[in-house]
């Protein structure tokens, strides 16, 4: 399926004279999302398909009888991500853009239950689940003067991750490099 989408994108881009590019992105925020993607740009529009890996955790405490307990969730997920980007315009050499992302993938979840009174780990459970991702970001990019087709960009915005057993999200950002062929 992924190969079919990539092949269709390649054929459509050749028909409309699109510019191919590759992105490498490092995430900052609670989920530490790192992404690499390949896509095509036409005028102010860009569409890319890529791979993203995330790490996240969540803590919950509760009381059962007289003993306090904690549950610590950890998730490591991989996503196939579709990004759409629209360039709003340029100001003083910087391009301003809006980016919308959607991803589907799977996650390896780990749940650690601990008795907080005795600091004893009661149980550790591991499970695999499907995962989804949504993101909406505002960003700026700047093309290097010494290398014409290489640019650096930064994105800030909101994202949401559904790791099946817990959700994560909020404000996040990323820094990336883009090379146009």
Quick structural overview:
This protein has 181 residues and is mostly beta strands.
Question: What are the defining features of this structure?
Answer:
181 residues, mainly beta, Porin, 8-stranded antiparallel beta barrel, signal, Outer membrane protein beta-barrel domain-containing protein
Net shape: elongated
Strand content: over 45%
In total, how many domains does the architecture comprise? Answer: 1
> Count the helices. How many?
1
Structural commentary:
- This protein is elongated.
- The protein has one domain: Porin.
- The longest helix is centred in the N-terminal third of the chain and has 15 residues, at 2-16.
- The mean pLDDT is 87.
- The chain is mostly beta strands.
- Strands 1-2-3-4-5-6-7-8 form an eight-stranded antiparallel beta barrel.
- The relative contact order is 0.20.
- Strand 3 (45-64) and strand 4 (67-91) form a beta hairpin.
- The protein starts with a helix and ends with a strand.
- It is built from one helix and eight strands, in the order H-E-E-E-E-E-E-E-E.
- Helix content is 8%, strand content 76%.
- Keywords: Signal.
- This is Outer membrane protein beta-barrel domain-containing protein.
């Amino acid at each position: 399926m992924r190969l079919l989408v990539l092949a269709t994108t390649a054929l459509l881009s050749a028909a409309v004279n699109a510019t191919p590019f590759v992105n490498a992105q490092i995430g900052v925020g609670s989920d530490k999302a790192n992404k690499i993607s390949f896509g095509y740009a036409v005028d102010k529009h860009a569409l890319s398909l890529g791979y993203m890996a995330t790490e996240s955790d969540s803590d919950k405490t509760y009381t059962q009888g007289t003993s306090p307990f904690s549950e610590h969730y950890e998730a490591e997920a991989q996503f196939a991500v579709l990004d759409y980007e629209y360039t709003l315009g340029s100001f003083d050499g910087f391009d301003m853009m809006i980016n919308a992302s959607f991803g589907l993938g799977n996650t390896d979840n780990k749940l650690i239950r601990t008795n907080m009174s005795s600091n004893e780990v009661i149980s550790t459970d591991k499970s695999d689940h499907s995962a989804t991702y949504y993101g909406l970001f505002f960003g700026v990019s700047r093309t290097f003067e010494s290398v014409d087709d290489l640019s650096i960009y930064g994105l800030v915005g909101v994202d949401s991750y559904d790791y099946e057993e817990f959700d994560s999200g909020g404000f996040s950002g990323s820094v990336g490099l883009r090379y146009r062929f």
